[in-house]
Specification:
single chain, 379 residues, mainly alpha, 15 helices, globular
Length: 379
């Protein structure tokens, strides 16, 4: 399973590094390798959250995520989308943007492509920060089967019963960011943040609507079917497995949700990559290799059932996302090193993994029912 899941990532790494060495020499080889490692370290929590969504999709859409999704992630989010952002924020035509990207020494209004991308940071950070903040808030305010930091999660679940509280908090955070961090970019920050909120509500809401309709249809089928198939479905539900993996429109909107999530994570890496290289193709190749591993790791977590075995991993990933959202909003005004962002994510994931392993040992020591049995019993 390991080689089957990571095979394309290994092949892409070898081909990419060989190409980097042939085109740019030893220095280019090292730059691409560093960028790939940077992308993986910044996005490990992204893989965990991706896995929580991907396991709700059927095998066909999981393959779409690994194929079409990779192309969108590598060429769309890490090459074309930054070009679009620079063009829109700096009011530059497509041909000029492409010329700036291909020629690091060329300038427009006295700024290089990297500097224009840096100037677009307030809009990028506001959009991505609010989108990620909504993911974090909807997780911590929702009821959960397992609690990691109970002294935080249980009170938040109680106040989370208030309708649309996550949106209210996000709007309040956006207003504070525009007031204290945006300076002369307040209007841009407000508009980009509102677009981030609207994107989250639209994509997440539509996927939820179609999932609900599929679940209703599944319940009707179970009520109508009194035979062996109905008994098998009940057995699957009692085992704690996902009884319904969505397809069609519901899976499509989940796929869009994953791509926007990936974009929100990639913004920080793309901007930070220009501190390592000014060559847009080196950046795309390095970050693209890293994106391949994030995709493969996501699928590996789903197929191995890692999130079911280590129940606090999802919590740690969402806390890391909450921290990244705060960092993005603060970075509108203050530069925060990428190493800080990466270490915070690794720290949360590591702590959650350690807590999950400790919990599993305690369950085994006291010979309690397996986690999947406990999970099924709660339903």
């Amino acid at each position: 399973m390991f080689l089957r899941t990571f095979g394309w990532s290994f092949a892409t790494t070898i081909a990419g590094l060989v190409a980097a060495g042939l085109i740019w020499g030893a220095e280019g080889f090292g730059v691409v390798l560093i960028l790939a490692v940077l992308e993986i370290s910044l996005s490990f929590d992204n893989a965990v959250v991706n896995a929580t969504v991907l396991k709700r999709m059927n095998p066909f859409w999981q393959k779409i995520f690994l194929t079409v999704g990779v192309l969108i992630a590598v060429f769309g989010m890490r090459l074309l989308f930054p070009l679009l952002v620079v063009g829109l924020t700096a009011h530059i035509g497509p041909s000029t943007v492409i010329d700036l990207a291909l020629n690091s020494g060329h300038t427009y209004h006295g700024l290089t492509y990297a500097q224009h991308l840096e100037a677009a940071n307030p809009a990028i950070a506001a959009f991505g920060g609010i989108f990620l903040l909504m993911i974090f808030l909807d997780f911590v305010l929702d009821e959960k089967d397992f609690h990691w930091l109970r002294w935080i999660e249980r009170p938040l679940e109680r106040i989370g019963r208030l309708e649309a509280l996550s949106s209210v908090i996000a709007l309040g955070s956006l207003a504070l960011a525009a007031r204290f961090f945006a300076g002369s970019h307040a209007e841009t920050v407000l508009l980009a943040g509102l677009l981030g909120l609207a994107t989250y509500l639209a994509v997440n809401g539509l996927s939820g609507v179609f999932e609900s309709s599929l679940e209703d249809a599944e319940e009707d089928d179970e009520d109508a079917d009194e035979g062996a198939e109905g008994e098998a479905a009940v057995a699957v539900a009692r085992s704690g497995a996902c009884a319904l993996q969505v397809a069609g429109k519901a899976a499509f909107f989940l796929f869009l949700y994953l791509e926007v999530l990936d974009a929100s994570f990639s913004f920080d890496g793309v901007v930070g990559a220009f501190a390592i290289s000014n060559d847009v193709f080196q950046i795309t190749l390095g970050l693209g290799i890293g994106a391949m591993y994030i995709r493969s790791l996501t699928v590996f977590l789903v197929r191995k059932g890692t999130l079911d075995d280590y129940v606090y991993l999802e919590h740690g990933a969402h806390y890391a996302i909450g921290a990244l959202a705060a960092i993005l909003l603060i970075s509108i005004e203050y530069k925060i090193p990428e190493i800080v962002t990466g270490l915070i994510g690794v720290a949360f994931i590591g702590a959650a993994l350690g807590s999950s392993m400790l919990r599993n040992r305690q369950l085994a020591r006291h010979e309690l029912p397996a986690p999947d049995v406990v999970e099924a019993g709660r339903h």
